[in-house]
Each structure stands twice: as structure tokens, then as C-alpha cells.
Amino acid sequence: MQKVRQAQAEQQRAAQNTASAQASAQESQNNLRAAQAEERRAAERVSSAQAEHRKNNQPQQSQTTGENINILA
């Protein structure tokens, strides 16, 4: 009977360890997903900043009205 109780206690400890490991794995998965989402947001901010930088640093093209003025009169 003693061996049965010891085996049952061991089984209970193993079940608790399994549950703990599963909870830890779930938390790790949640942390991974959060980190990946943060990485995506950061990449989007970089892309947006690069586009803004390109827009602000394009050479300004002179605008003409399309009229020609003859100054050799």
C-alpha cells in the first residue's frame, strides 16, 4: 500500500509539472506573438519614415505656366 501511495504522489507531482510546463509554454507563445507584433509595428514605422524622408528630399521641380514670352523684341 505504501508503494501505491508513493506512486500516486509521484503521478500527482508529474501532473503538476506537466501543467506548469504547459502554462510556461503558453506564456512563451504569448510573449512571442507580442514581440512579433511589436516588430511588425516597428517595421511599418521605419517604412513610413523612409517614405516621408524620400518625399521631403525629392528635388523640387519648377512649375511653368506653359506660356512663352519673347524677350527679343
UniProtKB/TrEMBL annotation:
Residues 57-73 have a biased composition (Polar residues). Residues 1-35 have a biased composition (Low complexity). It comes from the Bacteria. Residues 1-73 are annotated as: Disordered. This is Uncharacterized protein. It comes from Thiovibrio frasassiensis.
